[in-house]
């Protein structure tokens, strides 16, 4: 019987731990964890994401600040805001919502965030700490950190002897995910668009992670019987069966057929998706504890 990995449930337990951590921090040190989210322009999807992050931060008991800047904001104005948030002792986490309007240099902005406050885990210092296996002092990119918790909900902390294949090599997900799996002692292969015979590479995996952005690309025949399948993809496709003009979300894995073969699998939606925001909250409380000279709760 295939185990359906319930990302909503795992995310809810992370949020409970964050709430507890936030109230303990306020009680013992008088510090309220602060998260500042910066959004530039009026992309509706970005506004929806930012709104959800702000609401969750409030639910966690954080000081939740949103800076909404017009689309014509200059590089200097945005850099100035990040500089002031870097100096603001009441702010422990800074998130600049991506993508930024095309005239802005997103990488320069991300790299200007103090690494200790980079709760998206995208600063090269945090990427570098993960690359050398320093999980104790850096901040890890939220989606791979969340996907790793889902892997841990099935396997033990130690993945010794297990073969993991990550399809996708983005800086946002594929590379950090491969490093997290390696750090947990899995034998890791990173596949991408230039990989030859991807299906047979994937079939070697005890843990198969798909982060490609191609709807239902991973078929049942790509999955080793009993494997754990983590589907990171979020793809909106037409769903004429639901009525004219309707759409639905699917992952990078052909869920219905792959779940007949997998030992455990994440659904889309309700798998990796809810973990991203939960890990953003976890990173913020981690940053607040560290800046208060305390060891942060573990997630
Ligand atoms: P990305 O930057 O576009 O990277 C996609 C990766 O997939 C690239 O490494 C690319 O290889 C590889 N790829 C593309 N086509 C391929 C093919 N036919 N065969 C093998 N590999 C192929 O995407 P991303 O940011 O990592 O995101 C991937 C997916 O995860 C997207 O669906 C995105 O929406 C989703 N996502 C979800 C969350 C969440 O919160 N759940 C967060 C982030 C991303 P090359 O490098 O060779 O081009």
Description:
This protein is of the alpha/beta class and 299 residues long. It folds into two domains: 87 residues, Rossmann fold (3-Layer(aba) Sandwich); 133 residues, 3-Layer(aba) Sandwich (Rossmann fold). Helices cover 39% and strands 16% of the residues. The chain has ten helices and eleven strands. A six-stranded parallel β-sheet has the order 1-11-8-7-5-6. A three-stranded parallel β-sheet has the order 3-2-4, sandwiched between helices. The protein has a two-stranded antiparallel ribbon with strand order 9-10. Helix 1 runs parallel beside helix 10. It binds NADP nicotinamide-adenine-dinucleotide phosphate. The site of NADP nicotinamide-adenine-dinucleotide phosphate has 24 residues, from helix 10.
Task: Break the fold down into its secondary structure elements and pairings.
Elements: E1 3-4, H1 7-29, E2 34-40, H2 44-59, E3 63-69, H3 75-87, E4 93-96, H4 106-112, H5 124-131, H6 142-152, E5 163-167, H7 174-183, E6 187-191, H8 198-203, E7 207-210, E8 228-231, E9 235-238, E10 247-250, H9 255-258, E11 264-265, H10 273-291
Parallel strand pairs: 1-11, 2-3, 2-4, 5-6, 5-7, 7-8, 8-11
Antiparallel strand pairs: 9-10
Helix pairs in contact: 1-10, 2-10, 6-7, 6-10
Bound molecules: NADP nicotinamide-adenine-dinucleotide phosphate.
NADP nicotinamide-adenine-dinucleotide phosphate (NAP) is lined by residues 143, 167-170, 172-174, 192-195, 198, 211-214, 232-235, 272-273, 276.
């Amino acid at each position: 019987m295939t185990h359906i990995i319930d990302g909503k449930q795992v995310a809810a337990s992370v949020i409970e731990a964050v709430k507890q951590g936030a109230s303990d921090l306020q009680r013992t040190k008088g510090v309220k964890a602060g998260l500042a989210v910066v959004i530039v322009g009026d992309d509706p999807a970005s506004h929806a994401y930012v709104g959800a992050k702000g609401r969750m931060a409030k639910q966690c008991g954080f000081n939740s600040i949103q800076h909404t800047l017009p689309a014509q904001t200059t590089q200097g104005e945005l850099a100035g805001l990040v500089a002031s948030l870097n100096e603001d002792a009441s702010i422990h986490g800074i998130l600049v919502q991506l993508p930024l309007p095309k005239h802005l240099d997103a990488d320069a902005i991300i790299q200007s965030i103090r690494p200790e406050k980079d709760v998206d885990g995208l600063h090269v210092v945090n990427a570098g700490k993960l690359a050398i296996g320093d999980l104790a002092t850096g901040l890890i990119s939220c989606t791979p950190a969340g996907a790793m918790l889902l892997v841990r909900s099935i396997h033990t902390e130690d993945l010794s002897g297990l073969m993991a294949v990550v399809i996708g090599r983005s800086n946002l997900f594929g590379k950090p995910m491969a490093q997290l799996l390696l750090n947990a002692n899995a034998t890791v292969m990173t596949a991408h668009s230039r990989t030859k015979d991807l299906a047979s590479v994937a079939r070697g995996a005890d843990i198969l992670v798909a982060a490609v952005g191609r709807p239902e690309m991973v078929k049942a025949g790509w999955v080793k019987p009993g494997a754990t399948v983590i589907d990171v993809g979020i793809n909106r496709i037409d769903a004429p069966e639901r009525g004219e003009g309707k759409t639905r979300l699917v992952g990078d894995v052909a869920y219905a057929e792959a779940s007949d073969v997998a030992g455990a699998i994440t659904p889309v939606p309700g798998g990796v998706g809810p973990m991203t925001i939960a890990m953003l909250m976890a990173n913020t409380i981690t940053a607040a504890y560290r800046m208060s000279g305390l060891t942060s709760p573990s997630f």
